[in-house]
Amino acid sequence: MPIKYIIENERCGPYIICDYCGEKITKMDGNVYWRHEDAEKGSELFFAHKKCNKLFEKTTGRLSSETLTNLPIRLATNIGMDIEITKDSSPLYEYNLRGKILSFG
């Protein structure tokens, strides 16, 4: 899973790295991927920029995916953070989750 702590401009923090090009994913311009058949036992996660998606998918074969914007909300829920989830009103993005962190559990 390409999440790395990187020191940049005297600040250290986690960054998601694209599995295809190796660059940081910023501005939520990517997707998270996993092997659906492995999900029950725990599938490794993969990440790719939107601009790298088609080339990445050619190298990996069929994977399940969703927009990277969902990952922070899903992760926050799974580690017990109290969040409020609303659906985006756009019909093209009904599956996108939006959330507000209410407390740290």
Can you describe what's shown?
The structure is a single chain. The chain has 105 residues and is an alpha+beta fold. It has one domain (3-103). It has 2 helices and 7 strands. It has helices at residues 53-60, 71-78; strands at residues 3-8, 11-16, 30-34, 45-49, 64-67, 82-87, 97-103. It has a 3-stranded antiparallel β-sheet, with no helix packed on it. It has a two-stranded antiparallel sheet with strand order 1-2. A hairpin with a 2-residue loop joins strand 1 (3-8) and strand 2 (11-16). It is globular and about 40 Å long. The two termini are 25 Å apart. The model is unreliable at 91-96 (pLDDT under 50).
Briefly summarize what is shown.
This protein is an alpha+beta fold and 105 residues long. It contains two helices and seven strands; from the N terminus they run E-E-E-E-H-E-H-E-E. It has one domain.
